[in-house]
Automatic annotation (TrEMBL):
Coiled coil: none annotated. This is Ethyl tert-butyl ether degradation protein EthD. The lineage of its organism: Bacteria, Pseudomonadati, Pseudomonadota, Alphaproteobacteria, Sphingomonadales. NCBIfam families: EthD family reductase. One of its GO terms (molecular function) is oxidoreductase activity. InterPro entries: Dimeric_a/b-barrel, EthD_dom.
Length: 104
């Protein structure tokens, strides 16, 4: 199982609208990418660092796909719409990572 992780750094002057992300962007991504092999989206929203200071990351979101080919097809078909929506919830560029889900 393929995991695409998007990490949103909490940089000085940055913003992240978690409400919009969860209620609009993630739902849109689910609707657009499910036909292309997306099986799940899991998002954590940062609230604080361990010492109570602001979180180092606004959010970390994982998208699980059946395969790399499925992800590539989904992004080819729907990526432009999803990337165009980013300014609606943040002004930071997410860091993207491709991973394989490890067996528990």
């Amino acid at each position: 199982m393929l995991c695409i992780t998007a990490i949103y750094p909490n940089e000085p002057g940055s913003r992240f609208d978690a409400g919009y992300y969860q209620s609009s962007h993630a739902r849109t991504a689910q609707a657009l990418l499910a036909p292309h092999g997306l099986t799940a989206i899991r998002t954590t929203v940062g609230t604080a660092a361990l010492d109570g200071s602001p979180p180092p990351f606004w959010a970390v979101s994982e998208m699980h796909f059946t395969s790399r080919a499925a992800f590539d097809a989904g992004i080819a078909a729907e990526g432009a719409a999803l990337f165009a929506d980013i300014p609606n919830y943040t002004n930071v560029t997410p860091i993207l990572q491709v991973s394989e889900l490890a067996a528990a």
